[in-house]
């Protein structure tokens, strides 16, 4: 691979703006073409962001200078589009989830490996300096041996702001597959392979009502649980309790706490690339009432960017012949955990997670997205 690496997009919806803005600031990549079912939208985005070409998905796959395809299509076709890119001889970076079923996503990774191609999968927030600073603190023993974690994302649901929210409550979405990847990816990046999952789910309403936009007042069906509580156990011995909900009047999100033998650490929102990190020490002793525990702040280390950071790490990893952080293997394991949680909620039984994941690499403090390294 030579610098800069040629990038092509398939899918140029709303999320493409932040990708294109960030990638334009990374010298190691160069966006060559945008493709979409709506070719006019692709042309508009290309003009907006100074991309030299636009067309269909096939135009992206046929482009001779595209070495990596960025897949920003809807989740239902993630695996299909990524497989097409692999068949065309391109590496792939895909938005989460990697796919919606085990069979097609496993086949995708097998085909990529057979062709010597890489697959990367969002979220790449775990590469951000917020999460990475906290991870380095855990690895160096700031809280002793990690024992268990708690995460929470809860609020009343996207129909209060989204003019067409039905797809977020359809099969393949819901709070678990839409928001869960951020939290589960963070936990797997810290603790490694998940062994078993137990989950309980509920649908607070069978139909919900759109609150904003031209369709305000219309109802739509709820096909999947809108609240899920998960218990995960890890191969390394840790446990985690996680809540994802679109039913809570109390809005609370970004809660990730890891509790160890010598302290508890508070991580930033895993949906963000930066944030506040702090920890507390256990009480030594106290009288009738415990004192207020002092939160000790940890300075964030590293360069703050945004979406596309995982893609940049992927292309550098290819050149350096090393594993990339947000890998297809990681994306598949996270998907397997989420599908296992759905199965557990339906069966009311513990489910064994069949897949595993290698140790997720830590990002060096001196990783500079704005440097030309290739």
From TrEMBL:
Domain of life, source organism: Bacteria
* Pfam families in UniProt: GFO_IDH_MocA, GFO_IDH_MocA_C3
The keyword Repeat is assigned to this record: no
Per its UniProt record, what InterPro entries does this chain match? Answer: Gfo/Idh/MocA-like_OxRdtase_N, Gfo/Idh/MocA_oxidrdct_glycsds, GFO_IDH_MocA-like_dom, NAD(P)-bd_dom_sf
Tell me where in this chain the GFO/IDH/MocA-like oxidoreductase domain is found. 131-265
Q: Where is the Gfo/Idh/MocA-like oxidoreductase N-terminal domain?
A: 6-119
Keywords noted in UniProt? NAD, Oxidoreductase
Record bears the keyword rRNA processing: no
Q: Which GO terms describe its molecular function?
A: nucleotide binding; oxidoreductase activity
Q: What is this protein called?
A: Oxidoreductase
Q: Which organism is it from?
A: Brachybacterium endophyticum
**Source lineage:** Bacteria, Bacillati, Actinomycetota, Actinomycetes, Micrococcales
